[in-house]
Amino acid sequence: MKLLAYLLPIIVAFFLAAYTMIFKDNEDYAMGLIYVAASLAIFPLLYFLVINYILEPIRVYLSSRGMKIHFKGQDSFKYAQETYILARDGGGQLIASHIFQLRVKAEEDFAYNTLITKENGKKLIYKRVLIFSNKKEEHEWVKQMFELKTLGIDVRLYLWKKIDLIFNKSLIGILPRFNFLLYKSPNGKIVRVLIGFEKVRSRSNFFTKRLNVAFSFSNNYVYSALFNYFDNIAVHPDVYEVDSYEVYKENINLFPYSESEQFIIKELTDFAYTNNDVVHLGAFGKTASLLKNMTRFNNRANHVSDIDLLFIVRENKNRIKKDIIDLLINENIEIIWGDDESYFYNIRPDNKILVDIEIFELNSNFYKAHSLLGYSIFSNYLNIFTENSKTVDDCIFIPKNPISKKERSKRFLDNRKSITEFINVLSNTNEKQVDLRRSLSINIKNLCWVLTGYRSHDVEIDLSFLVNQKILSSDDYSLIIQILDIDSEDLKLNYFTYKEKTLELLTKFQNIALELNKTI
Questions:
Q1: Which residue ranges traverse the bilayer (predicted)?
Q2: Hey, is 397 helix, strand or coil?
Q3: What is the DSSP string of 6-63?
């Protein structure tokens, strides 16, 4: 009957053509009808032949060997849901992975929604690999998964332990492009395996008819092979196992970035990848160090920005700024724009995430005019995204080392955010606005750069060098540490006392550079 349906247009066309030739005496018109009908019928006819005479025999053969191919998302979803129901009602061992899925809310996870209805006491071990691109999303899923333990389900989760946050398209592209689901009943008689490619989802209402190939199996050989693959993931040095929410919370506290901060970085990274006007995104300062896993900042760094990023766009940077503001609109987030000359290292707001964003248009010469800032930012820099594999210096001007000690000293004394500018700003304001801790930290690093041509990423290393070289005294060192360690409350209460001491230190740094200029 299906074949007749595919051939029907041709049959009708032949009758119309015969009628036309006999009664209208128009052979050209008749042949045109036949050509049109044949064109309309050829593709569905080929589809019919491929499905029924090529793929169907293959499907029958594979089914006899315990394997089935699912071409539609709703078919693989149905198989997965049936598997979870079997596990819920019959117990046994259930193993699943959820690796770099497209974003799905935790409450839409059909695995959880199926297992949470468990009523009997049959033992079920549920192991699940959960790898997300940000800890905030991971936390939501983990917290929900461990609710299943109240039903007697032995939940064990396998999570990504690294603090690297740049799970970009390049990294995801080298990872396995499938997720799996394994189930074995307590007596081992029921075995079910599902392998889904790319778009296998965990969403409860995911009933799509789109092409989405998946394979299901019911034999022990495939189960054993994938179980071994799971074991390799579980023992990977960058994966760790947690069997309770309490253990998870202990581990999550080891991450130097909060979940909210990681989420912001992920949002801005996704924005860079999907916005055609963005040609480059990079991280600098503390953010670059943390993303490269170079260091874990101690509390002394609580005066710096939480997130430091640089965007380069084709044009119209003000429109991109507006898009970023719309993306991050939240009362708990404050954005600092690096090209805002009215901003001068203010005391950070309480209970807010501070995001420092430098944004420039392609071929900008900003850092040519303000090279001291450029040397600072690009001394510790991490590329996150660049269009067409270009480097950041393909996109904008970047000041290059080496330069002479005299040139370094000149920039330290007379450039944007120079020691002279810091002294002038602090001397001419009576407001508790500029962060004294950051003022000291920046200029200590700049002074060491002047003397050595090298920029470290830790102010304590710079201080040790200055003391060891007799450039600063032990009293200077003690005073600097005292100021750097001030908490925000103490800073506000005793601001002007600390400001006077800070100005004394900055003036000393300035005099060191001035004396250096005389001797070079």
A1: 30-55
A2: coil
A3: HHHHHHHHHHHHHHIIIII--HHHHHHHHHHHHHHHHHHHHHHHHIIIIIHHHHHHHH
Please give the pLDDT value at position 145: 95
The CATH topology of domain 68-252 is: Endonuclease; Chain A (3.30.870)
CA distance 54 to 67: 17
pLDDT at 74 over 90: no
* Rounded-to-integer distance, Cα 196 and Cα 188, Å: 23
Copy the structure tokens of residue 392. 């950041």
User: For the segment 264-321, what is each residue's pLDDT rounded down to a tens digit?
Assistant: 888 898 899 899 999 999 999 888 887 776 554 554 545 566 899 999 999 999 999 9
**Quick one: pLDDT band at residue 210, thresholds 50, 70, 90?**
low
What's the rounded mean pLDDT across residues 358-367? 94
Alpha-carbon dihedral 107, 112, 117, 121, rounded to 10 degrees: -150
Residue 453 near residue 447, CB atoms below 8 Å: no
- Domain ranges across the chain: 2-64, 68-252, 259-394, 405-519
Look up residue 417 and give its two tokens.
């955010």
Per-residue pLDDT at 212 exceeds 80: no
pLDDT at 207: 46
- In this predicted model, what pLDDT tens digit does every residue of 148-196 receive, in sequence order? 999 999 999 998 876 555 554 444 444 555 688 999 999 999 999 998 8
The torsion of the CA quartet 441, 455, 467, 459, rounded to 10 degrees, works out to 30
In order of 7, 15, 16, 32, 34, the CA distances from 21 in angstroms are 21, 10, 9, 12, 12
Is residue 402 reached through a cis peptide bond, with omega within 30 degrees of 0 on the bond before it?
yes
**Which backbone phi and psi does 191 adopt, to 5 degrees?**
-125, 130
